[in-house]
Amino acid sequence: MLRRFTTRSRGTGILAFALMFTAPLTARAQVVVIDAANGPGTDYTDLAGIAAASDGDTVLIRGGVYVGPLTVDGKGLTIVADGSGVTIFEPGLGATTVSNLAADQAVVLRGLKISSIGAVLTLSDNQGPVLIEDCTLEHTDFDFGANLRIENCDQVIVSGSDIYSASGYPVASEVLVDGSSAWFYDTELRGDSSLGATAGLTAVSSEIFLSGCAVSGGGGEDGAFFSPPPFCNGQRGGDALVMTASQATVLDTTLVPGAGGDPAPPFEPTCTAGVSGDALVLDASSSMTNPSGPALTAKTPSPVRSGEATTFDFEGEPSAILWFFVALDIGPPFANSLNFDGHVHLGGPPFARQGLGPIGASGTLSFSFPMPAFPGLDVVNVLLQPIQFSPTTGRLLVGTLSHISVLDPAF
User: Fold this and answer.
1) Which tens digits make up the pLDDT trace of 116-148?
2) Is the domain of 160 the same as that of 54?
3) Which of 11, 261, 263, 389 sits 20 to 30 Å CA-CA off 156?
């Protein structure tokens, strides 16, 4: 059954964020401030603040380089970078991990660069949702697993992020989704192109959704210099998307196979170039659907302070009619293929809707307004998701999920 939406007029719709909070907020989330420079209001100067934070807290990380790994086990947290320049670096082989979330717990990682010489981020055994937004996941050296590994998770959402390797060491896949459901919006997944071609994304016994993404296999290794065949031959490029016993929905997404490696001198006449990988590899038990039309994306800033002028940018189909929806929680993914494409990830109540009108001929629409105040609250975490009606297809399309932390100006 479709959820019941509360509609606002356009004149008051900009205040939807404030008006929707007439319902009592039963939880008073705390803000934990991590600042390597130990500036005003600092609670911790390192990632010990993650362990100290309680279930439901918001962790605000100011600019700096922090030694990882970052570990979240069995508690819901919002972890957000306060501005650019937040890097979590793991010098060992351990990965940042999020695990053992109950169904009523959620973790949000926003604006972080996470870099590791081993696997970068592992999400495992999570009934509750995990949202990764505006993050960079960079694998830099030895490879003992996928850069991003998603195992036994009910709902993982990756939005506006960049996932790649710069290691020189081979791994089977840049992103592995195993026994899970995962959504990728406006995200680039790039396979490694050094000592072995890497697949961009591998799904095993999983359901995946790709919207406005670029997935590429890594380039094949070049042949060895001053070596006879076959050692001087270029190697095969990596595949873009590999599916085993999985289902995928792919909207406005490019799948680019990795190029084959070059033959090495001085034996070029007898050495051969490697062949390119495949854009798509799926077994007989896998399937893929391709809805038509361009993806719908939302670009929102976070964190923002109450009273701060805030601009939201949307990109979608020119002339499509746009709405945005706001809620306090990530809800179970909801789809209705008869009426719309994509999934609604918003929970509620409260739950509010506001129409914004048609998207411009350039395919963009923006609006700005001062973020409302929430007296007595240190932080309010809001989820936003746009929906457009396409005059071309006559269907609705659900866009990118985005998370916004609205802070008291004291932070």
Assistant:
1) 887 889 999 999 999 999 999 988 766 556 789
2) yes
3) 389
Contact 205, 243 (CB under 8 A): no
Q: What is the mean pLDDT of the chain?
A: 86
Would you say residue 18 lies in a domain? no
Is 379 in contact with 407 (CB distance < 8 Å)? yes
- Shared-domain flag, residues 319 and 258: no
Tell me the residue range of the domain where 393 lies: 297-407
**Do 76 and 44 share a structural domain?**
yes
b/e per residue 335-358 (b: at least 16 CB within 10 A):
eeeeebbbbbbbbbebbbbbebeb
**Using omega within 30 degrees of 0 as the cis cutoff, is the peptide bond preceding 332 cis?**
no
What is the token pair recorded at 236?
């095969």
Count of domains in the chain?
Answer: 2
Lowest mean pLDDT among 7-11, 170-174, 290-294, 352-356: 7-11
Residue for token pair 């609250």: 377
pLDDT digits (tens, 9 = 90+) for 65-106: 999 889 999 999 999 999 888 999 987 767 899 999 999 999
Residue carrying the six token digits 């830099």: 140
Is residue 235 a contact partner of residue 261, using CB atoms and an 8 Å limit?
yes
d(CA 39, CA 167): 35
What tokens does 13 get?
Answer: 């719709």
304 and 238 within one domain: no
Based on the fold, state whether residues 303 and 343 are members of the same structural domain. yes
What's the rounded Cα separation, in Å, for the pair 109 and 71? 12
CATH code: domain of residue 126: 2.160.20.10
